[in-house]
Design brief:
- The two termini are 41 Å apart.
- With 307 residues, the chain is mainly α.
- The chain is elongated.
- The protein has 14 helices and 3 strands.
- Helix 6 runs antiparallel to helix 8 and helix 13 packs across helix 14.
- It has 2 domains: 85 residues, DNA polymerase, domain 1 (Orthogonal Bundle); 193 residues, Intergrase catalytic core (hpI Integrase, Chain A, Orthogonal Bundle), CATH 1.10.443.10.
């Protein structure tokens, strides 16, 4: 049913609105994000109301989508529902009172893949802390966890066989987060160097330690990242949270499902229901494997080499 409607909408934009094919493609690409969102929530596109629309915008904002991109997506959704009203598919337009996000408001920086690669490239692996710092960057960018979750990561909570780790988020809420192949590789290399440390009592299970064998602090993670960014010649004002936003943005840009990203980040939404809490680890891991740039690059290399 929806496929037929989308074909009619395509013809409407092309023939009656006389839009270019590039503009139509952009409209349809943005609309697809919203329709996937509705599909996951088991909401019929004709039953959409203002509350659902606002919830969708909250999710876009939470994963770091810039207000300009949000505004473009809203324009596409508004166009679709005006079309549905025009062809008598719906009786009322739910987007009438939906405000387009203000473009001027601040959002955290997002790093490009090239900038992340530059940061990785300046890490001095000849130093004892070099491999640790590489593992930190890959964990922040590979899993999108918060800095507080990073410093509290415990070795006993990492399942290397099943490729996931248990992290403790806000309000002591625990969740399972998949680990990518690159992330796992760098953590395992760090564990070899970690074994050379004189680990202090009470810090034995924490994954990331300083040279004195104690758990790293939030401040130290900030310092490490600022220093690496400076060495890489990156002028953006970045922090550990920048990697979390980059993780989410790159997944969404790659085509990942918004609800899956929300689960990976440990976010809660005003319309979260039981169906979202039952997303299994296999699905979330597949999301990272299929859409995260680190894994896309890895798959391409294997393909090119004939492996």
């Amino acid at each position: 049913m929806i496929d037929t409607v989308l074909k009619r909408y395509h013809s409407f934009l092309l023939l009656e609105k006389s839009l270019s094919r590039n503009t139509i493609s952009a409209y349809e690409r943005d609309l697809k994000k919203f329709l996937h969102y509705l599909s996951d929530a088991k909401i019929d596109y004709k039953a959409v109301n203002l509350e659902y629309l606002r919830d969708f915008l909250i999710d876009l904002s939470e994963v770091g989508i810039h207000p300009r991109s949000q505004a473009r997506i809203v324009s596409g959704i508004k166009s679709f529902y005006k079309f549905l009203l025009y062809v008598d598919e719906i009786q009322n337009d739910p987007t009438d009172l939906l405000e387009i996000p203000k473009i001027g408001r601040y959002l955290p920086e997002v790093l490009s893949i090239e900038e992340i690669n530059r940061i990785v490239a300046v890490i001095d692996l000849s130093k004892l802390e070099g491999q640790r710092n590489r593992a930190i960057i890959e964990t922040l960018y590979g899993s999108g966890i918060r800095v507080s979750e990073l410093i509290n990561l415990k070795i006993s909570k990492i399942n290397f066989d099943e490729d996931y780790m248990q992290v403790e988020g806000k309000g002591s809420k625990q969740r399972l987060v998949p680990i990518s192949e690159e992330e796992k590789k760098q953590i395992n290399l760090w564990l070899l160097d970690r074994n050379k440390l004189n680990i202090q009592k009470g810090h034995e299970d924490f994954l990331f330690l300083n040279r004195r064998g104690k758990r790293l602090t939030r401040e130290m993670i900030f310092t490490i990242i600022k220093r690496l960014a400076q060495l890489a010649g990156i002028r953006k004002n970045i922090s550990p949270h920048t990697f979390r936003h980059s993780f989410a943005s790159h997944l969404l840009e790659g085509g990942a499902n918004l609800r899956a990203i929300q689960q990976l980040l440990g976010h809660e939404s005003i319309l979260t229901t039981e169906i979202y809490t039952h997303m299994d680890m296999t699905y979330l891991r597949e999301t990272i494997l299929q859409f995260h740039p680190r894994n896309v690059d890895l798959s391409q290399k294997h393909h090119d080499s004939g492996e």
